Amino acid sequence: KHIIDCDKLHSQLKILQDKLDESSIKDNNENGESEATIKPLETEYFRGWWNPLSAFHKTQPFSFNGKMFPTAEHCYQYLKAQHHKKTSAAIDISRARTPAMAKNLAKKAIPQSNTSWESKSQQTMEEILKAKATQCATYRATLLKTRDKMLLHNMETDPKWGIGANGAGQNLMGKAVMTVREWLKRQPIPTPQPLM
Length: 196
Prior knowledge:
The protein has 196 residues and is mainly α. Helix content is 44%, strand content 10%. The strands form three sheets. Strands 1-2 form a two-stranded antiparallel sheet. Strands 3-6 form a two-stranded parallel sheet. Strands 4-5 form a two-stranded antiparallel ribbon.
């Protein structure tokens, strides 16, 4: 278990507050003078197969480009292998018993991703999560329940997809989830399907 102490937590929040864009600042001065008011930062951390927001979490199988996947991680690693023309590895990845096994198979088949994949990796994850949110009611409800919170992928060992050891990582997974959440808010509420 990873426990973040108070000092470290405050440090992480300070870094994130410093990165807030201008949309978090509004002008309340009627005389035209700029008076910056920063909205309170509500934060939610997520990680691990047990958390519904994680790519490793297994809710229900979903379809992406006509193929079924048990988790978002399976789908992501499968597409990564396909992009690198590792067809045999892609098949093994899609059949992996766990998302961790799918990730490890991809690492063995693709020790180093090419730049064309890296440039589209976050967008690919966003498209996967959109498909999952559209088809999986549990995931959709969990995501919308976070409202407008800052979502942080609490992976200290991953400074790209997570927040990294010092809280200053890129948090690409958190950003992808938040992007899909905003997209989901603009979608019509799915019509319940009648029971057969």
